[in-house]
Design a protein that fits this description.
Layout: E1 3-5, E2 11-13, E3 17-22, H1 28-40, E4 47-52, H2 57-63, E5 74-77, H3 84-88, E6 96-99, E7 109-113, H4 115-128, E8 133-139, H5 146-160, E9 166-171, H6 177-190, E10 198-201, H7 204-216, E11 226-228, E12 245-248, H8 250-265, E13 277-280, E14 282-285, H9 288-291
Parallel strand pairs: 3-4, 3-5, 5-6, 6-7, 7-13, 8-9, 8-10, 10-11
Antiparallel strand pairs: 1-2, 12-14
Length: 297
């Protein structure tokens, strides 16, 4: 370890180790994020210690000060509960980069995807196919998800731009395969009317679970119901049918986060982190879960 003069004027030993805190490694998107950060970290001279906060307020609050990690030089954190006040009152103000979900009015480095725009685009794709009854699966209030909230806004933007579309937003307890399946069974079995002909899901796990539920009900994908997801997890390309989804630029996200953390660690004392808000790109990956949809009579 070498001794460095830190941003706050105190001398500390560099370890070469950084922390990465994510809500759950069971969510494939976060597992992908971890893998990408670990892959790129050596380019910046870093090794990575990973912490799963498990939707715990205490674990997340501790992570931004290095609690739960070995001694680290800085931290990357996916926030779900943090406020700007939490960040400014940290007992151990390590260099910090936030990933993904937003902290309102935070001046700390942040790398994210334009969730609202991307969901607007994927929902507009369903509308352009001729879907007239579109449901969004993925509102979650406990614990709240900023990303899902922004995706809901994008969904509402899209359905509001096309006349004659009926829509609804479906709450889920978690972003999982099982929650997607249950949402579909509730929609078609317990709901009124003929059900939606398009599903916009806030992540791919929900979409894949929804497709399982549709098959159990004997509905064709995309002939009866077109399905779209978000994140482009590896299994999305290999599902039956392969899933249309939003593909965020994950390599850019991971590399940008590491670069911002590296810059903080090597910045002059006068440099302050009020700073850099990076929005990485995305694209729509159109696959067979929407490609063959035709308007039902």
């Amino acid at each position: 370890m070498r001794q460095e003069l830190g941003m706050f004027g105190t001398r500390r030993q560099r370890t070469g180790l950084i922390g990465l805190a994510v809500p759950s490694l069971r969510e494939p998107w976060f597992a992908q994020m971890v893998a990408q950060v670990v892959e790129f970290a050596p380019e910046f001279g870093f090794s990575v210690a990973v912490l799963q906060t498990s939707d715990s307020v205490g674990a997340e609050h501790g992570a931004v000060s290095g609690v739960g990690f070995p001694e680290v030089d800085g931290v990357l954190v996916v926030p779900r509960f943090l406020t700007a006040a939490d960040l400014t009152r940290r007992p151990n103000p390590l260099p910090l980069v936030l990933l993904g979900e937003h902290v309102e009015r935070s001046t700390f480095c942040h790398v994210t995807v334009d969730n609202r725009l991307a969901m607007r685009e994927i929902t507009a794709h369903l509308a352009a196919l001729g879907c007239t009854r579109i449901a969004m699966i993925g509102r979650r209030s406990s614990p709240a998800s900023d990303a899902a909230g922004r995706r809901e806004l994008g969904f509402l933007d899209a359905v509001g731009e096309v006349s004659g579309i009926a829509y609804e937003v479906i709450d889920v307890p978690e972003f999982s395969l099982g929650a997607g399946r249950r949402a579909v069974l509730d929609l078609f079995v317990s709901g009124s009317g003929s059900g939606p002909d398009g599903l916009a899901c806030v992540n791919d796990s929900l979409a894949l679970g929804a497709m399982r539920g549709l098959r159990e009900l004997g509905l064709a994908i995309p002939g009866d119901v077109a399905v779209a997801g978000f994140d482009d997890i590896p299994m999305a390309a290999y599902s039956n049918p392969p899933l249309t989804t939003v593909t965020p630029d994950l390599p850019h996200l991971a590399r940008s986060a590491l670069e911002l953390l590296h810059r903080q660690l090597n910045a002059p004392l006068a440099w302050t982190p009020d700073m850099e808000q990076v929005t990485v790109g995305h694209r729509l990956t159109i696959r067979e879960s929407t490609e063959g949809h035709t308007i039902r009579g």
